[in-house]
Amino acid sequence: MSKEKPVTVHAKVGFFKLFFTSCLGTIIGLGILVGIGVATGVAIGSSSEVEGIKPNTVLKIEFDEPTPELTNNVAQGQFDVEAMFAKNIGLQDMSRLLDKAANDDDIKGIYLDLSNVPLGWATTKVLRNKLIAFKAKGKFITAYTTMYNQKSYYLASVADSVYLHPQGGFSFTGFAAQLTYYKGLMDKMGVTAQIFYAGKFKSATEPFRRTDMSEANRKQVTTFLSGMYDIYLDGLAESRAVPATELYRIANNGLIRTPKDAVQYKLVDGLKYKDEVIDELRSKVGTAKDDKLEVVSIEKYYSIHKDDLNPSKEDNQIAVIYAEGSIVDGQGEKGSIGGDKYAAEIRKIRKKENIKAIVLRVNSGGGSALASDIIWRELEMAKKQGIKVVTSMGDVAASGGYYIASNSDIIFAENNTITGSIGVFGMIPNVRGLLEDHMGITMDTVKIGKYSLMSSGSSLFYEFNEEEKQMIQQSVDDVYTVFKTRVSEGRGMSMADVDSVAQGRVWLGNTAKEIGLVDEMGGLEDAIVSVAKLASLEKYSVVDYPKAKSFEDKIEEFISGEKDEGVNTKAALLQEIKNSMTGTDIAELQEVIEAAQQIKEMRGIQTRLPYQLNIQ
Q1: Residue 140's domain is classified under what CATH number?
Q2: Nearest alpha-carbon partner for 419 in 363, 374, 458
Q3: Ranges of residues in the chain whose predicted pLDDT is under 50
Q4: Which residue range(s) make up the domain with 577?
Q5: Domain boundary among 266, 286, 307
Q6: What is the rounded CA–CA span in Å between residue 374 and residue 371?
Q7: Pairing mode, if any, of strands 388-398 and 506-508?
């Protein structure tokens, strides 16, 4: 579970350079706040109500941005100022929007533009089921793209009409998983990974200690990949009325080689250009060919309905805590699960008298063992208070993600959720060979204390002896024992039974239910209904935690003077700006950034200087 962060070597910079660079970032940030604030203030003062939906409208859904569990809870990269303004509609809000659209008389159908589907498999399945429910209301769905991959086709397959560009692509060849191994490169560089792990299936460290898959890892990957493929083919078979065995034969023999093949084997309904698809949409909603087709994007639909997606205002509340991303120590950033942050969030929740139950929504492959235990403890305290706790698993709830779920009263998973991985590892690189043999940097040492070089900083240049290795391995084994104990007590299993399904092995959700790691198949809505029954709640409101607001929402709060409990809005805004404009001296890196951007934008034959001149 524990992951050592890669070491970054920073060049020493003068105090004044660092000081003015830091000040510059703050000044720019304040300037942006003031500028955006003025613009936002004008907009707030002059804006009218958001325009509603017109009759005979088509809802357009495309996936240009990541879809997190919780709206706007997406990690923001450095230099990515644009990401500050992106509106990432979360899976649960997307699901609620589809429910609303299904009952909206003005929405006649959905147009799926599936050029890109950056979703996990369980997330895709949830949205696919929502589209099926939408169709059940007697409304149409049309899917179109220039290129279907297997995931985008899985989503498209529920549509009444599945269309493909006549010269487009259709990938349908079966599932595969490729892992990249770094040991050979590390050997050449003189870097040694000092690895300690517990669980024969705990394969997270294999890329740094092997050049290929171990047999144990090959076995588990083959097992869960085959299971996912079976689920995939069964879903397609039901939607397209083509037997799963026939679909397997088509894929296994590579029979889809042209768009016409996709039509021939009944995977696609027709080959059309986009204008032809638009004309068909006009026909379906009764719009004349020369008239404008009323289309609303899912983002616009969200902006209209975001305040009434969860309209219930009952006094009794169910708190849904979204735990997505890596589990890290401390507060963590947006899109991660900070142990201290989430512990404080749960502590605040369990002190509210009107919160009667908790649903933990997990979409995480784990991370820090310490942070996982800190979160586990707060959930355990909530249970001791009499608050019912149910977990709902998303795409993945493994290792630390399973740790924090293990003491729940009931655990729900999708059948294609990746879970388990009950195991522990630690990895400490030794870069001494790189520095000495390739860079000519040497070190000498004075030790005060037999084990003084075992500290994390010194150990980067130090090879542990056998006694020290045994000490570290013992520490890893102790954490593994604690992990298994948490699972044993939380799941009501014997330690022997836990050990038989642990060992770091990954399981699919449906298999995890068979072996006792999961209680029920289902999604977040099922978990909410279940916890309401456990808490004897007939009427209740659902409240999402933590609060993840868009940059524009924060600006609006900053201007209006509104404040969230315990949140310094101005400081949060400045931090977000600094995250996008790193403290590194931007001027020194600007040339590199621009060159990289030029390469990224190059298409076809170029008429361009082969290099950038810098004449001084």
Answers
A1: 3.90.226.10
A2: 363
A3: 1-34, 36-50, 566, 581-588, 591, 595, 597-616
A4: 15-48+553-601
A5: 307
A6: 5
A7: unpaired
